[in-house]
Amino acid sequence: MDVGTMNKPDRYHKQAQSGFTLLEMLLVLFILGMLAALVVPAMGRLDDHERERFTRQRMELIRRAILGPDDRFDAEGRPIVGGYVGDIRAWPDLWEARAEIRPNFVGSGWENPGSMTAGLGQGPDYTLDPALVFYRPSGRFVKKKWKWYLPYRRLYDDTTANADHIGGLETENEGQPRGLWTRYPEELPVDIGSHKAPGLDLGEDWKGPYLMPPADDNVADGGHWAESDDEYGALEPLWHNSGAHAGSETWEEGSYGPASELGEHFDEKESFRLLQSNGRLIDGWGRALRFFITEDPDWPGGTIFWILSEGPDREGTYPSKGTCASHAWSVDATDVMATAYDEDDEKNLDNIVVKLYSRDWEALFAAEQARKKGDTRSTLEAVRKALVGQAPDGLDSGFTGDLTRWPRLFRWEDNGTPADATDDYWDDENDEATPVAYTKGQPRGLWASKPNGSDSGDDLDASQWGIGWRHAYLKAPVGSDGHQFLRDAWGREILFFHDATNGLWLILSRGPDGLFDFGDTDTLPEGSPDGTDDYQEPASFTEAVDVTNYDPTASPNADNCHIVVAERDWLPGFFRLPQLTVYDATAGITKARFFRSDGAAAGDDLLTATTLVDGGDSDGNDDWVAGDGTPVNPAFNFDDTTTQKAASGARYLVVWNDNDGDDIPDSGENGFTILYNVTAVAGSGEQTDLTMDADNFAALP
């Protein structure tokens, strides 16, 4: 019976970016502290009504810790999911103290963690072998106080062998959502091979604690059952070395047995353990709350997080993946909490149950992720536009169109004094005797003409005749010093990779999981063996990068956002002027220059009037004609076959009288300018013949 369900399927929540606010967290911790300090010692004086009220209050606090308050909305009116789920995007795992080893176990146990027998529940997979362990938590008495054995074991649903008749997510268990109060819920005391103490780390996204760690406020609880290890061992179910139950306990865990046999309702050991509240969330009757994580039968792919109190009768009946008689199981994989929990069972009638549905927040998170992906793609597209404008089909108004090259990539570097962060700076090359440019970093030239405050040699010259830095192509990212970098919608640094060999730039957001796989480049971190994840955080920022190795379909790239910008999008540009005629030119003085780069190659983009002819104005041989008007011998020609290449973008052709002979059209010299839109589309750029009269030249700006 789903009595007291606190969260209906049609109530929706959205993520809070950083869990609870500080004020909310302090309030929750204060309330829990008061409940633990004042209410629990007085349990003996409460009637069942008050105990139920306390239980529901405790369940609501747990719900808030998991999902946050249910009355918070964002600026668009969308519910906000907070708490653990808001931060971690998943239910908190359930953890039991380490599994009890069977008396007939032969092997290496927890006393020898370096060579433990597999299947004892140790991390990182926490797998249990039913031939070696019981699926229940274990502990011992220390000065008449029960202590759980460490580490804790993460519960899972055994869908292969279905051996978890208890101790699974879908069957009776004693797991607790320890991630609500600790970032390290496993509490592993020693290393187990490569699995290092303190065990599982919930990571930087964990913003807890979301609840105060539960403590045992009544150490005498359970004393009527046992006060020593021997007394606990004498509780049912007992281990039998002989007789009908030889090599087994009185009944199999999870078995409710036929009428002629004892079963779970007679489990004295469990009754004792449920009264041990140290590290456990309890109900109003002083017993540990039950938790389950099950499938949602009404929502394919969804899950349900259960919070259950067994109520005043302190009993419950639970699905156990089958039935058992005489120690032999008939497995039924459908006999699970999701579908087979019977709320009308006489032992369950007074149970108090809260169900939380993943469908309430998964749809919100999915919509939020879609928005973030959309925002991130917009950011990447803005970067692409800052690089190449509308190229290749349209005008290259970006950095490459103005500076006719890629922007350089910068890294935040130490200036040789690690203790002094104030002298660190952005640089675009390493400190070797012959510096090498970085292939990974931030394209600071997109927003700063002085990208390296410590070296004016990296300054970008202002635009002159269409060549140079005109303006910021992107709004400068927020942050200062080493924290000023482009970010995606998840707040992570957008990564840039320059593949000089293939003429490619990869612009990469690592997506929601923050991971990417670039393939093994075999440029290794110092001291690392070949193939040791050097693709994820390359140690060499000058190594040659092959962008074609990036596979967007590979794990973990599937959730990434990326754009590849190719040099062919902006270089070469296509431009051909078949013939240029200048009337009344001056030999050796009248010149024409096509501004395609910083330099000028004579005969290609710099032409000088030499032989004067009658160009058609009928006033004698005082005209200059460049090109014969055919594609074979044009005045100017730049394409993918010419030695000199022109970058796409707004390109100036200046025809002027170079009175000082420096091959540069200076301010005050007389001339004529025309601006062409050069694109990287093959076949474009074919111009009509151009004719002008030097007598009509005007002073250049």
UniProtKB/TrEMBL annotation:
Bilayer topology: Single-pass membrane protein
Top-level division of the source organism's lineage: Bacteria
Membrane-crossing residue ranges in chain numbering: 21-43
Keyword Nucleotide-binding: no
Major location category of this protein: membrane
Cellular component annotations (GO), alphabetically ordered: membrane; type II protein secretion system complex
PROSITE patterns per record: PROKAR_NTER_METHYL (PS00409)
Annotated keywords: Membrane, Methylation, Transmembrane, Transmembrane helix
Pfam families, per database record: N_methyl
GO biological process, any: protein secretion by the type II secretion system
Localisation: Membrane
Protein name, per record: Type IV pilus minor pilin PihQ
Organism: Syntrophotalea carbinolica (strain DSM 2380 / NBRC 103641 / GraBd1)
